[in-house]
Amino acid sequence: MHSKKVAILQSNYIPWKGYFDIIARADVFVIYDEVQYTKNDWRNRNLIKTKNGLQWLTIPVSHKSTSQKIHETKVINNNWSRKHFNSLQANYGKSPYFNQYKDEIKEIYDGSEIYLSEINRKFIVLINKFLDITTDIIDSRTLKLKGDRQEKLIEACEKLNASTYISGPAAKEYIDESLFKENNLDILWMDYSGYKPYHQINGDFEHQVSVLDLLFNEGPNAKKYLKSKF
């Protein structure tokens, strides 16, 4: 019998390669954006490489209260999108595969989405396509989850008929594995160590950058630098 694997993560802006490795390992990926929006986090920003070192690309958002959820978070203005695309072009324009991907990326930047989650989701779906990742993507709000953080994860897995929950290593701080066992769920812990370096322009090699860096530099070979075999 096929063991169905589910991964659940908050949406991030143009995430790093490890994020897509988790998606690639799952049969279903749940974007979990009905939780508190956290400032200065990966929800609305990520890193790219420049000849002057690492640079943040940050989407300006309206943060009105501490109870604001990620999916309720709106983007402040439209000018950021042009700036971000121009930054990618300025810093990766000479990368071997920038031209292969730029038009579809620019299409998202030219869009009229006002919610951060929707922008992030569009990039995640597009990058999955570039990496040949065919995992189903759903929004956690469609599952109508209840309870505390762990109960929601378990309920999501049950509603999706999963036998395995894939988790990033940071969740070891709060996940009680015995609760998952009681609900007949295995946990597969993602290990982010040991990624192979790839050809990268602009200085010393950096793993902690947007996956766009990998795509622009390695193109169709990019997926060979993920750990998941798919």
Description:
The protein has 230 residues and is of the alpha/beta class. The mean pLDDT is 95. The protein has helices at 17-25, 79-92, 98-109, 116-130, 149-159, 177-182, 211-218, and strands at 5-9, 28-31, 45-50, 53-58, 61-62, 74-75, 136-139, 164-167, 186-189. Helix content is 33%, strand content 16%. The strands form 3 sheets. Strands 7-2-1-8-9 form a 5-stranded parallel beta sheet, sandwiched between helices. The chain has a two-stranded antiparallel sheet with strand order 3-4. It is built from 7 helices and 9 strands; from the N terminus they run E-H-E-E-E-E-E-H-H-H-E-H-E-H-E-H. It has one domain (5-225).
What is the helical fraction, as a range of percent?
25-40%
Number of strands: 9
Number of helices: 7
Largest sheet: 5 strands, parallel
Q: What value does the average pLDDT take?
A: 95
Which radius of gyration do the C-alpha atoms yield? 18 Å
β-strand percent reads 15-25%
Provide a short characterization of the protein structure:
The chain has helices spanning 17-25, 79-92, 98-109, 116-130, 149-159, 177-182, 211-218; strands at residues 5-9, 28-31, 45-50, 53-58, 61-62, 74-75, 136-139, 164-167, 186-189. It is an alpha/beta fold and 230 residues long.
